[in-house]
Every structure is written in C-alpha cells, then in structure tokens.
Design goal:
The structure holds two protein chains of two kinds.
Chain A (H helix, E strand, L loop, with lengths): L2 H28 L1 H6 L3 H28 L11 H31 L6 H33 L3 H31 L1
Helix pairs in contact in A: 1-6, 3-4, 3-5, 3-6, 4-5, 5-6
Chain B lengths: L4 H4 L9 H28 L1 H6 L1 H31 L9 H31 L8 H32 L4 H28 L4
Helix pairs in contact in B: 2-7, 4-5, 4-6, 4-7, 5-6, 6-7
Classes of the chains: A mainly alpha, B mainly alpha.
Chain lengths: ~180, ~200
C-alpha cells in the first residue's frame, strides 16, 4: 500500500526535525544562567513551546484538510479561509501567553519560589507574539512549497512547523528574557 | 451539528472563522498549558540530574519532538480520512490500524538513528558521562517505544472521539498528542533511567 510513500515523505523530515530538536535542546543549555537569574522562567519553557507547536500544527493540519477538500491549493492560497486561520493563530497566541505567565507564577508560589509576576508575564507575552508572527509567515511559506511539490500536506506541515516552532520559540524566549532583564 | 456539514452547505464560500477556531481551541490549549506547567515543574525538580547528565537534556526535546511528530502525522492523516470518508470511525478500521503500525515502525527507525547522532554529538562536545553507546540507544528506544505506544492510542482515540462529538479532529489531535508527548516523554525518560539505574 502506501507505507513506502509515508516512509519516503515522513522519515527524512522526522530525522531533520530530530536535528532541529537537538539544536533546541542545546539552546536550552545556553539559557542555564538566565534560569538562575529569573526565578520561574524554566517553568514556562514547556508551556510556551507547546503553545507554539499546538497552534502552528493545528493551523497546518486544518490547511491539510482544506487541501484535501479542494478549498485551498497553490493557485488559490491567499483567500479568506487562510486569513481567518491566521487571525485565529495570532489571537490564540496572545491569550494563551497570558495564561502561561499567570500559571507559571502561581505554580511557582506553591513550590516556594516567588517570581516577579509582571516580568514573567511580559517575557512570555513578547516571546509568544513575536514567535506567532514569525511562525505564521513560515507556515504560509511551507504550505505554499508543499502544494507546489504536490506532496500531501498532512505528512509534512505538522513536523516541519513543530520543529521550526521549537527552535524559533526558544530563541524568542531567550531574546525576550534578555531584553526584559535589561529593561526591568 | 457535525463539523463536516459546514463543508457541504453551499451558499457561503468561507468555511473557517477565527472566532470559531479560537472558541474550539482555547479550552483544550488551556488544559494543555496546565499540564505543560507541571512538566516545567518536573524539569525544575530534576535540574540537578540534567546538569550532571547533559546528554539527556539534549535528548528531551528530541524524544518529545519525535513522539509529537508521529502522533500529529497519524492524527492529521486520520482527520483527513474521516473528513473525506476513507477512514471509518471504528477501532476495527483496517486503514487506521495500518496507519498505526507504520507509525510505530517509523518511530523505531527515527529514534534509533537520532540516538546515534545525539551520542556522537555528545562525544564531540565532550559531555558523554560514562554511558556506552549501546546503553544510550537502549534507553532512548525504550523511552521512545513506551511513548509512541501511548501517543498512537491517544491520537486515534482523540481523532475518533472529537469527530463523533462534532469537533474538527484537526483542532483537537495536535494539542492532545503533543501535550501527552511532552509530559510523558519526560516522565518515561526518568522512569527508564530509574530502572536502568543511570544518574539517580
């Protein structure tokens, strides 16, 4: 059946995503000093990475189904359906970033650490919004290329977005934490 | 109303609305984020172990990434199959079972290759702390196998249940699967390390 096709389309991408994850893991290692300086920062990392991955892959997955149903293709990409999907990604990023900051603050209080609430929420919000803009643009680019090549978006967009998302998000939160630490 | 019905109602050409997507996604994303905060607290708790064995700090995003990718692709394929109709909403569906088996196979190959790559990157970076290549591969494969089994099950269950309830599986599967992947990936890794007796 199509096992060979799935292997051919997915496996190289999974390996590539694995390399991306190694880069992401190594970048986290560079942030150890920041984690010590900003109490509670490490707690938001899985949350913000997950938020970014979830929003982007759900976006990609919906576009995959839209492609199978003939709503979106490479000649008819920039339509109202795509725009509505973009708005939803940005708005979700804004709302969920605030939720992450607040939850990280209160859960840290429970284990006896007192983070600076304003600082923590600001860091998450800046990182969440900047990564949302970058990832949305990247998503559209990837989808366009996947369509052009005639691949099934279901096999490609999720892993590609999750991986680029992880690296971009960690870099964004790295930058955001450095910025906020300098200003506040 | 079933989600797919809006695909066949002809008058309005625009199918997606940001309000509907936000409304459908927000509750699940919030739950996901709550679980991820717990994952964050586990990482904080195990920070000393990870500093002592940095090879596993690098491995955590890899374990979670592969698990999440396998589950998301499986879920996205099932979602498209359900929308179009070539996958039926049953745990006995042969098409679904075939997809799960291929996912397990791909996961095994992927974890195997990546374990070797991580190990040699760690050798080059001079951070291998007394772990043989074979042991490291065994730890990653065992963690990965446990993870992908649970994730595949979660992916199929989420796709089927959300479709039955009239939600778009595309909105549901990715959050559920990646969240479970992140949390259990970290848990299973420390569980396997505990059994083998490395670093604890």
């Amino acid at each position: 059946m199509y096992a060979k096709e799935m292997l051919k389309q997915s496996l190289p991408l999974f390996i590539l995503c694995g390399f991306g994850a190694i880069v992401a893991g190594s970048t986290l290692g560079l942030m150890l000093d920041l984690f010590k300086e900003i109490p509670g920062l490490i707690v938001v990392i899985p949350g913000i990475i997950a938020m970014r991955g979830n929003i982007s892959t759900a976006f990609g997955s919906r576009i995959g189904s839209a492609y199978h149903l003939g709503i979106i293709d490479s000649d008819n990409l920039w339509n109202e359906d795509l725009k509505q999907n973009i708005y939803s990604s940005i708005i979700l990023s804004f709302l969920v970033s605030i939720v992450i900051g607040v939850l990280a603050y209160f859960s840290s209080l429970l284990v006896g650490i007192t983070p600076n609430a304003v600082k923590l929420i600001t860091i998450v919000l800046i990182a969440g919004l900047i990564s949302a803009f970058i990832l949305t643009l990247l998503t559209i680019l990837i989808i366009f290329m996947v369509f052009k090549r005639g691949y099934d978006p279901d096999n490609i967009t999720g892993p590609a977005l999750a991986t680029f998302g992880d690296i971009i998000t960690i870099i964004c939160i790295f930058g955001s934490a450095l910025l906020v630490e300098m200003i506040m | 109303m079933h989600f797919w019905k809006c695909f066949v109602s002809g008058d309005d050409n625009v199918i997606y609305s940001w309000k509907k997507i936000v409304k459908n996604s927000l509750p699940l994303l919030t739950i996901a984020v709550i679980i991820e905060i717990f994952a964050g607290q586990i990482l904080l708790d195990k920070q000393e172990t990870l500093i002592f064995l940095p090879i596993f700090l690098i491995s955590i995003p890899v374990i979670n990434s592969v698990g999440g990718n396998i589950g998301s692709v499986l879920g996205a394929r099932l979602a498209s199959g359900l929308h179009v109709g070539y996958v039926s909403n049953s745990f006995k569906d042969k098409e679904m079972q075939y997809n799960v088996l291929i996912s397990l196979l791909i996961a095994f190959i992927t974890y195997f290759i990546l374990a070797i790559v991580i190990y040699f990157i760690a050798v080059l970076g001079n951070i291998v702390s007394d772990i043989a290549l074979i042991s490291f591969i065994a730890i990653i494969l065992l963690t990965g196998f446990l993870l992908v089994c649970v994730i595949s099950l979660a992916s199929v269950a989420t796709a089927f249940i959300s479709y039955k309830k009239g939600f778009d599986p595309d909105d549901m599967v990715a959050p559920v699967v990646t969240t479970i992947g992140d949390f259990l990936g970290i848990l299973f890794l420390f569980f396997v390390l505990g059994i083998i007796g490395v670093g604890i």
